[in-house]
Write a structure and sequence with these properties.
Radius of gyration: 34 Å
Distance between the termini: 85 Å
Number of strands: 0
Number of helices: 3
């Protein structure tokens, strides 16, 4: 099914519902000719949608497959962003801890090494 043939059934359904709502609003306002035009267009849209469904084109399965693929891609992207945010948070906590613990004694090998004094130097 080509992209063009996937778009037209959606357009036909939207066309159907817009004319349905327009016909009801026009009839409620007393504009019978306007309402008649909307209902005529409504039947035209209903005929086209019925013709598509009778041909057996499965628009909904194609759209649901595309939607499922898109949602899986979005889920993977959100997970990747979450991992990166956690990594950035860990780095920020480490830097904050380094700045706040300046005066505390550290275990050997932890933190910045102190300069070594030679016996010949004073």
């Amino acid at each position: 099914m080509t992209r063009r043939s996937r778009v037209w059934p959606v357009v036909a359904v939207v066309f159907f519902f817009i004319n349905f709502a327009g016909g009801i609003l026009a009839a409620a306002q007393g504009e019978l000719l306007h309402a008649g035009v909307h209902f005529g267009l409504l039947f035209l849209g209903a005929y086209y949608v019925r013709r598509i469904w009778r041909r057996g084109e499965s628009v909904s399965t194609d759209l649901s497959r595309e939607l499922t693929d898109s949602l899986k891609h979005l889920e993977r992207s959100v997970e990747a962003v979450g991992i990166e945010v956690e990594r950035l948070g860990e780095g920020q906590r480490f830097i904050t801890r380094l700045f706040t613990e300046k005066d505390t004694t550290r275990a050997p090998g932890e933190g910045v090494p102190e300069p070594v004094k030679n016996k010949g130097q004073s």
